[in-house]
Amino acid sequence: MRARRSLVAVSVAALAALSLAACGRSAPDVAAYVGDSRYSVDRVDAIYEDAQRQYADAVRSQSPQTPSPAELRSSVTRQDVLNLLVAIDLGKRVVADKGLQVTDQISPEQIQQALRMPATTEYTKLWGEWVDLSSTLQQSLPPADLSDESLMAVYHALEKTGAIQPGLSVDQVRQAFGEAGFVRTATALSSALQEQAEKSDVRVNPRFGVTGVPSLVNTGQSFVFYSLPYVDQDGPVTDISTPEAPASDSPAPGAV
């Protein structure tokens, strides 16, 4: 995968989002509103359960011994699913506004090993669609300035996956990241998504946590999947380095 695809997306700016209780957009069976689009809790559940079922089947078929219940459970969460649905919707709206043409560059088969998820799951297919969308957008946007805040937002998100040494200072992160071109392009993309999310009046169901942009980084040896929060159901994100995951799900995918 080429360097321009090494980071799908990051979000480093606070984004205002009203709760579902406002303006009558409060149906408990709706996970998120994006403009006139509704993403139901049932759809999120279906994608999540399909991913878990196919993951467990794949583990059973590849294991010489009977796997434990923990081994049969993927680290994918319902929050991960909602993040993809919202990001893809916003990405499509930005692409349409800019009159861009999205090309099919990544297939589910190409990322299934990195995701540790069968290509036949809708979750993996959504990831493939998001990689194509975000790659197209990144190519059309001028790189953003590299601030300490954007640099550390990426670092803290990667730190949570265990893919990078914890407790580094800003100077140490700058040294580790080098020119950090992937942070610049991703920051530009996050700004475009932020603007579109505000225009589309994104609202999320309080049962979910902070909505984040699905992201991946190529370390040169593996891909690390993570998420940077940008939409909070109660308002602007004020501490993007410490999102809280829903208690009912397992942690988001880390290094693979």
Contiguous low-pLDDT stretches (5 residues minimum) are: 1-23, 233-256
* Beta-strand segment tally: 5
The topology string of helices and strands comes to EEHHHHHHHEEE
Q: Structural class per helix/strand content?
A: alpha+beta
What average pLDDT do the residues reach?
A: 79
Given the structure, what is the number of helices? 7
The best one-word shape is globular
Largest sheet: 3 strands, antiparallel
Radius of gyration: 18 Å
What multimeric state do the chains show?
A: single chain
Widest sheet: strand ordering:
2-1-3
Distance between the termini: 15 Å
The percent range for strand residues is 5-15%
Indicate the percent of residues in helices.
Answer: 40-55%
Task: Summarize the helices and strands and which ones pair or pack.
Layout: E1 30-34, E2 37-40, H1 41-62, H2 78-98, H3 108-115, H4 122-140, H5 148-161, H6 170-177, H7 181-199, E3 203-204, E4 211-218, E5 223-231
Antiparallel strand pairs: 1-2, 1-3, 4-5
Outline of this structure?
By secondary structure, the protein is an alpha+beta fold. It is built from seven helices and five strands; from the N terminus they run E-E-H-H-H-H-H-H-H-E-E-E. The protein has helices at residues 41-62, 78-98, 108-115, 122-140, 148-161, 170-177, 181-199, and strands spanning 30-34, 37-40, 203-204, 211-218, 223-231.
Structure in words:
The chain is an alpha+beta fold and 256 residues long. It has helices at 41-62, 78-98, 108-115, 122-140, 148-161, 170-177, 181-199, and strands spanning 30-34, 37-40, 203-204, 211-218, 223-231. The chain has a 3-stranded antiparallel β-sheet. α2 runs parallel beside α4 (122-140), α2 (78-98) packs across α7 (181-199) and α4 (122-140) crosses α7 (181-199). The model is unreliable at 1-23 and 233-256 (pLDDT under 50).
